[in-house]
Amino acid sequence: MIVRIMGEGQVRLADSHVAELNALDDELLAEMESGDEEGFRRTLGALLDTVRRLGTALPDDALEPSELILPPPDASLEEVRELLGDEGLIPG
Questions:
Q1: pLDDT digits (tens, 9 = 90+) for 17-37
Q2: Which of 18, 34, 51, 84 sits at a 20 to 30 Å CA gap from 3?
């Protein structure tokens, strides 16, 4: 799967990592709903770090269709709320 981190680029990530990302996404959603800014920052950072750690960065000139689009690390709680679908940032 191809994941885009807004403002950074794209990463190729094995589908086998989706469960780990979903766990972080669920935690992020709960922190957003409760207004926990500190927890939101920590979990968003962990989610992005996990994608970077487990994935392989694509060259800057690669333009693959992204299956997931994640916010940049400096996104505000409100900006991420606007990106969320019914299932969070990561469907499934």
A1: 989 999 998 999 899 889 899
A2: 34
Over the chain, what HEC string results? CEEEECCCEEEECCHHHHHHHHHHHHHHHHHHHHCCHHHHHHHHHHHHHHHHHHCEECCCCCCCCCCEEECCCCCCHHHHHHHCECCECCCC
Q: What are phi and psi of 65, to 5 degrees?
A: -65, 130
The model carries a pTM of 0.87
Q: Which residues pair with 10 in a beta bridge?
A: 4
Among 5, 2, 3, smallest CA distance to 71 is for 5
Contact 68, 4 (CB under 8 A): yes
Given a cut of 80, is residue 88 above it in pLDDT? no
